[in-house]
């Protein structure tokens, strides 16, 4: 077999192993080292000291020692150590644990229940008011945390029972929670975009600026669907009775907004604004956001030693997962490229003589399919870099491609059979709520994601307008 054929076999074995359920980060590292040992195998270099000792008539112990040393004198081990150091020293990735910590602290600050109640009261005259309040709460909370599972679970415990009690259709209510909870990986400050920036070399500040309008576009489409369906089919979201709606004085509502909505919104806008306008680097802004999250928890009297420990533990656990994924992915991809696999794929795709539109559709379709068995982090770190070298050939801007991918990955949480948002919600939903009802409720929101992608392709200035306005071309 030629080296490129071995590289393709390496990729095939990896896909087979992850479908068997092995840990992905360690699978990548193991395959990278095993195939890398073959790729960098050089007997003359590796056992040079052993051959010299043998010629000099050295003792058995010295021969064994030099042979073992030669066995580990393969450049793949140097590569592995260097890749590990590069990941741990990557300044872009430093923002990941800080944003995660901000999210976990905010999650434990008892803000969400107040926020949802306030938004529901403020929007009670709108059709589907409780669903509108739930979606906005999900979007704001998801933006602050960037952790889909935490948002869907918490909102599933808070807003989902309230909507069921208000006689909302089960599928409709499920779709609102699942779709709203995934917005955090798209709307800045998004951890997913930080990971894409590290994988692609694209500017994180331009990515944040480019993702802002598409994120609002998708959230707006969700809201239009919720209100439109509530108007056309009132049975899915019945209007509250006078007793249920209550009569809250305007002054009290203003106070509620200032104590629930405003603090979190100011925190997010301060963090995002300082990044977009160059007042701070993403890492510095994330540090300020983490401190702001702590201050919010103190202000709401929700900061306890136990909650702080949990936030730190979960931050370290998630950060370690992301970092080891990067180590494994970069080791794997370096060996894959060295064997000629990347060149082979590039030649194959460019030889198809397809248009940029066909390439984008093909790439997004593959990412859509990968979203079934894999998490977004694994797709971004492992598979997206395969497409990046092809972008110049087809004239696709990496910024535009990244935002399309971020939109596309919304589907990985909403598409059966591995719709993780649906499973998060099912895990805490009442027993009578069936998984198939949750899947059914996610389908219209899935259609909104595809619609947003179509709009984005036909109107790419939605992505480019804000980055060009702030930073120029």
UniProtKB/TrEMBL annotation:
Keywords: Cell inner membrane, Cell membrane, Membrane, Transmembrane, Transmembrane helix, Transport. The keyword Coiled coil does not apply. The keyword Transport applies. It is a multi-pass membrane protein. It is found in: Cell inner membrane. Residues 11-462 form the TRAP C4-dicarboxylate transport system permease DctM subunit domain. The chain crosses the membrane at residues 6-39, 85-106, 126-159, 171-199, 211-232, 253-279, 285-303, 315-339, 354-372, 379-395, 401-425, 445-466. Its main location: membrane. It holds the Pfam family DctM. It comes from the Bacteria. InterPro entries: DctM, TRAP_DctM. Belongs to the TRAP transporter large permease family. NCBIfam families: dctM (TIGR00786). The complex comprises the extracytoplasmic solute receptor protein and the two transmembrane proteins. Part of the tripartite ATP-independent periplasmic (TRAP) transport system. This is TRAP transporter large permease protein. It comes from Halomonas flagellata.
């Amino acid at each position: 077999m030629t080296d490129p054929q071995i590289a393709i076999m390496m990729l095939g074995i990896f896909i087979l192993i992850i479908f068997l359920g092995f840990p992905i980060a360690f699978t990548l590292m193991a395959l990278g080292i095993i195939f890398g040992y073959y790729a960098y195998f050089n007997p003359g270099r590796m056992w040079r000291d052993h051959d010299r000792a043998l010629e000099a008539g050295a003792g058995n112990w010295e021969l064994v020692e030099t042979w073992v040393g030669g066995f580990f004198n393969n450049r793949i081990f140097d590569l592995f150590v260097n890749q590990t150091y590069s990941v741990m020293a990557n300044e872009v990735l430093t923002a990941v644990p800080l944003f995660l910590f901000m999210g976990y602290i905010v999650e434990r600050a008892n803000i969400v229940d107040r926020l949802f109640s306030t938004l529901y009261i403020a929007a009670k005259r709108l059709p589907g008011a409780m669903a509108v309040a739930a979606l906005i709460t999900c979007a704001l909370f998801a933006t602050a945390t960037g952790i889909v599972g935490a948002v869907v679970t918490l909102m599933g415990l808070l807003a989902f029972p309230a909507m069921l009690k208000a006689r909302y259709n089960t599928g409709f209510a499920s779709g609102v929670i699942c779709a709203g909870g995934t917005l955090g990986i798209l709307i800045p400050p998004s951890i997913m975009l930080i990971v894409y920036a590290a994988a692609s070399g694209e500017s994180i500040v331009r990515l944040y600026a480019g993702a802002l309008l598409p994120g609002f576009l998708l959230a707006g489409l969700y809201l239009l669907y919720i209100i439109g369906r509530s108007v056309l089919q009132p049975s899915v979201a019945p209007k509250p009775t006078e007793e249920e709606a209550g009569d809250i004085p305007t002054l009290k509502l203003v106070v509620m907004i200032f104590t629930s909505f405003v603090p979190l919104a100011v925190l997010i806008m301060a963090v995002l604004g300082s990044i977009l306008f160059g007042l701070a680097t993403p890492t510095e802004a994330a540090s300020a956001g983490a401190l702001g999250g702590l201050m919010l928890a103190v202000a709401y009297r929700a900061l306890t030693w136990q909650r702080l420990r949990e936030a730190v533990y979960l931050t370290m656990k998630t950060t370690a997962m992301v970092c080891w994924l990067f180590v494994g992915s970069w080791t794997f991809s370096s060996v894959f490229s060295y064997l000629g696999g990347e060149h082979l794929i590039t030649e194959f795709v460019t030889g198809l003589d397809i248009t940029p539109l066909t390439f984008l559709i093909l790439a997004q379709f593959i990412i859509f399919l990968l979203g079934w068995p894999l998490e977004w982090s694994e797709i971004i770190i492992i598979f997206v870099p395969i497409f990046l070298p092809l972008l110049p050939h087809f004239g696709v801007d990496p910024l535009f491609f990244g935002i399309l991918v971020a939109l596309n990955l919304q589907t990985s949480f909403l598409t059966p059979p591995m719709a993780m948002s649906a499973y998060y919600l099912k895990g805490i939903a009442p027993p009578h709520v069936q998984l198939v009802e949750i899947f059914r409720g996610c389908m219209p929101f899935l259609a909104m994601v595809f619609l947003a992608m179509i709009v984005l392709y036909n109107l790419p200035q939605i992505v480019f307008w804000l980055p060009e306005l702030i930073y120029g071309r």
